[in-house]
Amino acid sequence: MVNDIFAFNIGTFNCLAIRDGDDWDRNVLLIKTGAQQILVDTGVGRDLYSPPAVLLDRLLAAGTPPTAIDIVILSHADFDHIGGTMDEHGNPAFQNARYMLPREEWAFWSRKPERLPPSTAYDEEFRKIARDMPQTRLLQLSDKLELIETEAEIAPGIRVIAAPGHTPGYSIISVESDGKKLVCIGDLIYDPNDIKNPDWYSAFDFDPEEVVITRNKVFEQAASEGALLMTSHLPFPGLGYISRLERGWRWQIFETKG
Ligand SMILES: [Zn+2]
Fold first, then answer.
1. What are the two backbone dihedrals, phi and then psi, of residue 196, each rounded to the nearest 5 degrees?
2. How many angstroms does the Cα of residue 204 sit away from the middle of ligand 1?
3. Residue 1 has pLDDT above 50, yes or no
4. Quick one: which of 46, 119, 184, 248 has the most CB atoms within 10 Å?
């Protein structure tokens, strides 16, 4: 296994987890349904963040040129998820793709929010990127974006479900095929140790109270269904299962060695 591309199956769908860079974990999901190739989130991109991202190179290495992507689903518009929608020349990085964003997320950024409050958890430069890069990308994409409603079925077996809190329009992506289920929960957790406390939230969560409610609800369902979960920022490939503890939750890493 190359340690920046990991292939796995969900029913008849072939999935790839791809690491968008080597500086910190940004796990991007590619779903090949047989009929379509669907990318969930796009990393930081090549022009507005340093070091530039390597998602496009790794997709190509995995046999998928950017022109082969049919749909790009954005879980939300934070810079480390929407940045890679454009290339370094300001053109859509996936020329033939439909770009989809939850309607509620568009409404949130339309209000020109201060994404993060001042904090010792990050510096001013980071705060500025977190506030400005999404605005830049949403403007560049405005003609192409399709705004989607929660529970919308994007393709057979693939649904986008509202999971507000991290951002108001934040959504998770449910992938079902042949009785198997993967849920891309993205930024709902950053460190498995944190979720032992069910009231935990991160410095990057826009509405901490809502995050706690959403996370517990999503985990409850995933645990009862035995769904595989994919996270954006746990160590690559960010896959695992959730189970209940007497208080809080336990993250069990998906075994990636054959
Ligand atoms: Zn993120």
1. -65, -30
2. 9
3. no
4. 184
